[in-house]
Amino acid sequence: MPTNTQHPNLLILGIGNLLMGDEGVGVHLAQRLAGKDFPPGVDVLDGGTGGFHLMDYFTSYPRVILIDATLDGHPPGTIRLLEPRFSSEFPRSMSTHDIGLRDLLEGLQVMGRMPKVYLFAVSIVELQEMHIGLSPEVEGVMGALMEQVEGLAGRLALRRSLGTSTSGFGEIHSGVVQ
User: Fold this and answer.
1) I need a surface site. Which of 127, 163, 164, 175 has the fewest CB within 10 A?
2) Looking at residue 97, what is its pLDDT?
């Protein structure tokens, strides 16, 4: 499934539903990143609400940067970078595709095929049915979110080429690392 057949290394995966307002933040970001020039082995995918249909992508890459909306009670537009190892460590409310994504992650764990996941969780306030755009709060952090995703992808690609690992990322609120 990798689009870059030369040593797939990292997948940047935006998920969400474009018809539910801010819930589609991951898809909006993936679409904006699609035209960017990334190092070899780094691919970008608009995963929509794919659920189990994304399994081949998760099993084809050793590392995945996942971007998704979360109903977590934080102010809208709060960006948090998490490194969950198990499905239980993902934010509780992964919005409208929660069941499919959680089931997929649990299946990958059982099979021993879970990639290293870096999750950019973007806080939203509500699901907006039949609304394609983003709220001003979420649109206002898209630049910072894009920079953070591109920066992490660049660091991961560099560390892979140097043979080192990466960890210890902090929490980001409206583009500011804390």
Assistant:
1) 163
2) 52
Cα 67 to Cα 111, 123, 162, distances in angstroms? 23, 11, 26
Closest CA to 114 of 103, 105, 123, 101: 105
3-state class (DSSP) for residue 164? coil
20, part of any domain: yes
> What is the Cα–Cα distance from 24 to 27, expressed in whole angstroms?
5
Query: pLDDT-based confidence at 88, cuts 50/70/90?
Result: confident
Q: What are the pLDDT digits (tens) for 126-139? A: 888 888 899 999 99
CATH number at residue 101: 3.40.50.1450
Per-residue pLDDT at 51 exceeds 60: yes
In a domain, 4, yes or no: no
